[in-house]
Model the fold of this input.
Amino acid sequence: MVKCMRTWLLIFFAFTILVLSSLAQQAPATQNQAKPEDTEVWKPVPEVVTPGATCGAAPSDAIILFDGKNLDQWVSAQDKSPAQWIVSDGVLTVNKKAGNIETKRSFKDYQLHLEWKVPENITGSGQLRGNSGLFLASTGPGDAGYELQILDSYNNQTYVNGMAASIYKQAIPLVNANRKPGEWQTYDVAWTAPVFNADGSMKTPAYVTVFFNGVLVQNHFELKGETRYIGQPFYKKYDGAPIKLQAHGDPSEPISFRNIWVRELK
Ligand code: MG
Done:
């Protein structure tokens, strides 16, 4: 009986040593692997500011990108086929199955106005609550480009460089001017596109200024490059790019847009 127990104890110890040594071998590889969390910033949390009433009617020289009627100015960002999001009652709603959409036109420097609304009955939390995005320049399919985050950040905690009005993973908004879900929100953006040298290196960086519900949240921020979900941003040469809207894969209810216009800056 004692001999039998000894044998079992020996087998147990041998097995434990085997497991521990295999874990020790895996550890360095796991440590070297970049993770999305590496580039999340959680503090300090921007102060809450209650926005006043806003107006956003298009001026005479604006290019109307969405006026409530149709998606004539937009295509699928994946294959340039007609955009398949839903237009109803003057409002554009994300069709998550159809993927991101982008403008047919390309832009360099511009002023842009856009309104967005998270459904009143929104569910989920963190990044999975009304996530979308305004890509200030779409440099390729998928989420390639420079993302101004759209998210329900009204009483919804997440990493602050990923909240609404952040330049995703680069710039925390100066304050939190988010309205409640169910209310329309406005973005007013001044975008200065990056300029590149012939060899592809960056000559001058991109800059962005953003008003969120009329409140200054990004003040001539110098971008470090394209948005990266994992790892650090860097510049990739492009010459004029569409403006893109994100169909994020989170399971929360799709958000809506209205009154989108842009003014090219010569
Ligand atoms: Mg997003």
User: Anything to note?
Assistant: The radius of gyration is 23 Å. Confidence is low (pLDDT under 50) at residues 16-21. Residues 131-133, 147, 149, 246, 248 surround magnesium ion (CB under 6 Å). Residues 189 and 210 are 5 Å apart (CA to CA).
